[in-house]
Amino acid sequence: MRSRACLLAALLLPLATWAAPPREIARAFTERGVPMPGVAIVVQEAGALKPLFTHQPDVAMSPGSVMKLVTTFAALEVLGRDHRWRTDAYLDGTLADGTLDGNLVLVGGGDPKITLEQWDAFVASLRDAGLAEITGDLVLDRSLFGLPPHDPGAFDGEPLLPYNVGPDALLVNFKAIRFRFEPGVEGASVSVAADPALPQVAIGQSPTPVDGPCGNWRESVQAAWILQSGAAAASFPGRYPRDCGARDWYVAPLDHPNYVHGAFMAAFGATGGRFGGAVREGHPPPGATPFVTLLSPPLYEIVRDINKLSNNVMAQQVFLTLAAATMPPPATFEKAREAVLRWLAKRRLPLRSLVIENGSGLSRAGRLSAGDLARLLAAADASPVRDEFASSLAVAAIDGTVQRRFQNGSVAGNALLKTGSLEGVRAIAGYVIDPGGRRWIVVAIVNHPNANRAQSALDALVQWTYRHAAGYTRAPLR
Fold it and tell me: Which of 107, 401, 411, 450 has CA atoms 20 to 30 A from the CA of 229?
């Protein structure tokens, strides 16, 4: 009991007085044009009472996507590893001989990951349950989340890109459409197909096939988008290099209700179902019971996608679920922030630098110090959800956002990492297991205009920890 109390006390100490990083680590950053005042570092053995070395550990930094570590750890502890989300379908009318004389109501439960495959199976289950025709409308109940209108271009001026999709209580397929470009057999034409093929999305002109290297093919096709209320049209009047072969371009041109409407029409029609109604907001009839329910995968699987692949909207869905599960409806970002702070207070883990906006790190306002993130990782390593949390991190050179990093390094397969990347921000955090089996917490955050050049230095820190941390003699304090 006393040792646990000592460990907790050590976790709460300011870290700024510990030893400085080795010179070769500092040199790795400065040689990439990143001065050390723009870097924060903590390296500490898991379970140790003090770090091996630190640099600016108590400076609040813009963390990028390593903020997802806060959200996912909180979710695993608050919601439980086996938490599942529900999407319920209700009948608002009379079903007779396969025909619903009324409306179909879909109630969103905040599921972070309804894939097209799951959606198609969900819609097919309606047919299996006896629903063949709907005479009324598709009614969407998205009231679980109480969110202001989302501007997908507000963050970086890229409103069509899927990483800017906002959360929704009824999120389907991340609201994404895949446009596949593929030269014909003789190379005389280029076909463009959308998946899913939604009735609200029209494809006009296809690009002209040309010889030459693939290069920046997205720029070459000269995409022209016409976005109207509830519909989108895409035209590609440019050129498409034959050397590209088949390529995919993911975009999110529709709002949530119209995407769900189109996805339902496509999936229900594919089963032979008949529906031609509109989409609108509403609620199920009072006292109604679900006709069909879609259950999500368990949370421990969801957090793997969030951390390994750094999925922003999934993280925001989980963040809002913390509010939905612990506070009166509707769930908001403000309530989700309060839920995280209450969780931290309950487990006596104050993260004094923490400023969390939406739970994903896709934010200019978010702040977290390297020291606080190291404390969080230490707490997670001693938590009952340790294994679920650790397994959600990308494995060096194996998968996720670090699949193509550390390929020639001895640390390959021996580090569990979360990366972060914004303009002017690069970060890496997680656990390194050295050759002797010792587990090290590594956190490094870069905030500098040259942050995009810091990846090799961050990787060097991870490699150094694997090779040298166990035998390192602390440098004098500076």
Answer: 107
